[in-house]
Amino acid sequence: xxxxxxxxxxxxxxxxxxxxxxxxxxxxxxxxxxxxxxxxxxxxxxxxxxxxxxxxxxxxxxxxxxxxxxxxxxxxxxxxxxxxxxxxxxxxxxxxxxxxxxxxxxxxxxxxxxxxxxxxxxxxxxxxxxxxxxxxxxxxxxxxxxxxxxxxxxxxxxxxxxxxxxxxxxxxxxxxxxxxxxxxxxxxxxxxxxxxxxxxxxxxxxxxxxxxxxxxx
Length: 217
Description:
- It is built from five helices and two strands.
- A two-stranded antiparallel sheet has the order 1-2.
- It starts with a helix and ends in an 18-residue tail after the last strand.
- Helices cover 64% and strands 6% of the residues.
- It has helices spanning 3-83, 87-110, 135-144, 152-162, 170-182, and strands spanning 186-191, 194-199.
């Protein structure tokens, strides 16, 4: 009979350990699910960009093929006429044409066509330097101006209203928010199944994103 209390205490100790392990397991599952959701969103954006790039490459390839077929047709049409000319005269006429063809190809290679910039984006300044703030700077500035946490949709909508001349993709905005959180410039807050972001005002690291360290000296 005196062994019964000891057995009961041992059982309660095991039960408390199991409860603690179960709680840690659930927290870890929640963390991994949130990261998986963010990665899936980024993957979807990359797939959309991949489709767009493939479409652009296909359009450029078809244009090159049409130009090549047109050149073959023109050269094929000129061949029968050259066959009826004597060899000596044909040699004299062929040399200037070859020189002109080479000169024309050189001019064409020196003047490639310029690709149009997508609608809603600014053309970069001379030298490849940006003329306006980066997306991460705009996102960080928006968070600092808010008194409450913001979601990805709220940040995207606010930036579209503030900068109608630019295009803001939710995937890119989410990536910028996650980067700021990883650098300690903002805080990632999870409420039930939603994720919100808020600036960290008490740290000096929040004043300037870590991306300024990558600027050339």
